[in-house]
Structure formats: C-alpha cells, structure tokens
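Comment thread on ticket #2218

A.B. wrote:
> Attaching the input chain for the structure job we discussed in standup.
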Amino acid sequence: MNGADALLDTLLANGVSVCFANPGTSEMQFVSALDRRPAMRSVLCLFEGVATGAADGFGRMAKAPACTLLHLGPGYGNGIANLHNARRAFTPIVNVVGDHATYHRKYDAPLNSDIQTLVGPNSIWARSADTADSVGRLTAEAIAASYGPPGGPVALLLPADAAWTQTSTSPVKTSAPPRSATPADRVSDTAKMIRSARKPALLIGGDACLAEGLREAGRISARGIPVFCDTFVARQPRGATVFSPKRMPYYAETALAELEGVDLLVLAGTAAPVAFFAYPDRPSDLVPSGCRVEVLASRSENAIQALQELGDALEAPVSEQGNAFDVSQEPRGVASTAACGASIARHLPEGAIICDDSVTSGAAINAACLTAAPHEVLGLTGGAIGIAMPMAIGAAIASPGRKVIALSGDGSAMYTPQALWTMAREALDITVVVFANRSYRILHMEMKRTGAGGAGPAAKQLLDLGNPVIDWAGLAKGMGVSAFRCETAEQFDAAFESAMRESGPKLIEVSL
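C.D. wrote:
> Ran it. Output below, let me know if you need it in another format.
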C-alpha cells in the first residue's frame, strides 16, 4: 500500500466516496489507486471549474464532502471561481491537489508554483502531506475541518513521492464536529428585545434556510415579524406549502427601502447585510440608521435549534405558512422570462432541484415557482458566475432519482460549457435552460448604477454576446446532450414538459 492508497482508504472510511477529477502527471498514483478502490466513484471533468462546482453541488445536497483531484497550482487556479462560491456557501469539499515530488520542488520546473499561497484564500484548512506515513492522518484532519462548523473547502497537497512511497498506516476515522447551541439567556434576551422593539425583523441564512429552519422561521413570521433570507442562499426549499421568507433584494437601494423603519434586526445563521458593490453616494452598510443588530445564532452555531427556542419563547403558533399550489395556464406568445417561469412552475416535479445562475432572468422564474410543486434551489452564493451546470452535476450525483434543472444566462454558461460533456458521459438526469439574451445584461444595468453612464460603441463591444451568435443547441449536441432552441412560449412549454417526463441530460436554449 502506498500513500495514494492510504488517502483513498481514509476518504472511504469517512464516507467520502465521490471524486470529481481533472488529473495530470503528478496525480497518476492516485488515478492508479482508483482501480484498487472501486467504491470511490470517479467523475472526469474537462475543466477544473466544473470539478469544483460539481463538488459544491454535491456537498450542498449530501451535507458531506466529495473530493476533487486537481493538477498542481494551475489546476487549482482553474477551479478557484467555483471554490469561491463554495466558500461563501460553507460547503464541505476536500480538494486533493497534486504536487511535484518534495525533492523536485527545488528545481523550479515549469509547472512549479506556490500552491500553499494559491489555496489559502478559499481554504479553511490547508496542509501538505510530505510523507506517505502522514497522508492518512492529514486526510482525516482535512475531512473533519471541511465540516467546520460552519464548513468550507479544504486543500490537501499530495506530493508525487508521498503518493508512490509505501506505507503501512491504517485508515484514520474522524467525525463532523457538532454545532454549538445558542445559550439560553441569549434566546430569552432576544425574545425580550423583539417584544419591546417598534419594528423588529429577522434575517436568516445558511442552515436556517433548510426545511427545518424555514418551519421555525414561519412560526416567528406568524407573530407578525417580517422574515428575510439572504439574497443568495446555498440551499433552500421553495414552492407550495413551504414558508417563503422575503429575499433580501440585490439592489442596495431596494434593500434599504425594505428595511426602512426596522429598529431591531435579528440574525440567525448569517451576517448583517451589505451592498454587493460600492456605488457613488450610497451606503455599503444596509442596516438602517439607529437599528440594533442582534445575533441569535452565528454561522457556527445551531441556528435551527435557536429559531425553535426563539419561537417557543415568543409563544409562536405551529401553523402552515406556505403558499397554496397554483400554476398558471399555458403561456403563449414570444419567449420571455415570465413565460418560461410559468412553464417551469407548471411542469416542475415535486422534489426537483434547481441550480440557479440565471442572473437577470432569475427573478421571474423565482416568482413563478413560489406556488409550484415543492422543490429546492441552490443559489449563486459567491457571485462568481458559471456555476449552474457544474453544480447540477454534483446535485444529480448526490440525489439520484430527483430531477435537476440548471438555469443559466448565456454569459454565465460560457464559463463552464465543458459541464455538458460530463452530464452526457455520466448519463445524468439534468435539464439545462440557457436564457440567451446575447448580452451581459446585468452589466448594462450596473454601468448606469455606478454612474458610468450608458454604453457607447467601445463599451458595447465588451457587453455584447451576439457577434457571433453562440449556437447553444449545436454546442450541446456536439458534447452528446440532446438540445432544443425555442423562440416562442409554446415551444418552450412543450420542450420543458418533455424534458421533465424523460430522463437523461437535455439543454433548452431560449432566444430572448
């Protein structure tokens, strides 16, 4: 048994049984060891950003880490954007980053780099296993660290010689550290503050947005207390019968208007809201002037339990707070985001998983699906576009039997189109919807909001995606995914209904 065997044995002993990989020469011992460990499912991704995004989707659904296999510093660098999203989602991921043999580093070969520095910003734990005997122990440490709380990506560097050197170590078992409970006096003090506040509000995020947390938040809402959730949530149930908190608006001025007059903002599983970007003559802090911020449960604490105890302290009723099931009639006319939203709501099966990276197209779909069959949504937590299709891969592997839908703008989808190939190779039940408006539309809006004015001829060259037009249906078919292009609402409705009835990967391009 060598170091690569020891790494895989420890991963498997701790329930890590899926690896999203894009290997190179320094990882060949790990690749070889996979033949001796059939329990580890290995999934090839043609770009590291797909591998890391898939690991994020898997971790959000499984509540446990997958691992990635990345080739040296450049390979890790290619996956950074979606690891940024995963860090903001607090998703457990074990990134195994191959490295040069320890004795080879000093020669500064062409692929040599400072991997420790590269992994630092998006890793809550990072170590190099420089000897085969240390591999098992450090792998167990990495797994435990990935759970946090609150959790996040970790990086285990595996030098080639540590991978190929023989070792007699046994697999090391570990466990996920528990989340600490909110102190009872903090709960009772928060309840007193709410009762005495003129206009209290509750903001939830993280685990508080899971099904159990939403039920407790719905009880508190029934006491007349407005409940908001973060703008982008890692994982959130939605649809009919599910309590739907107000989504904190993306635009700072809209968020400030929503919070106007709030004199107590209680936080559970999240932090105080801030603007996504700085704008001239506008505040970055979205907490209203004179408003007190009270942390009921930090991201590292058990926010679900804290909400339950707060609801009990407020004598909040146990009642259903969700919307009734209600879907629109068959939409007609030109294809639009509103029409697509109506179709998605009509045909969405119960238990579906939506991976959302649709940017400007998403609001209409979210609104329509509030009364659709109960489903779950995985959001763009870090704002780095290009995650919907990779995240769908991980979600589908973590949740077999559930329909997965990836919603993406055409600009976002071009960051990680290689994901289509992996969907086809793995025969995953994923339907990709690409809203093709041939533009970075969000940037047209942001140019005006930042005071930069409207886009002139040179600026439009950097915001336009229509010259040449991207053939999404052709691109998908070239990677083995059946695809359809829709220009009318009727065409989309029929294509989406068919995709929901059939299994396997599909892409629907909507020309907007």
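A.B. wrote:
> Thanks. Noting for the ticket: The chain has a mean pLDDT of 95.
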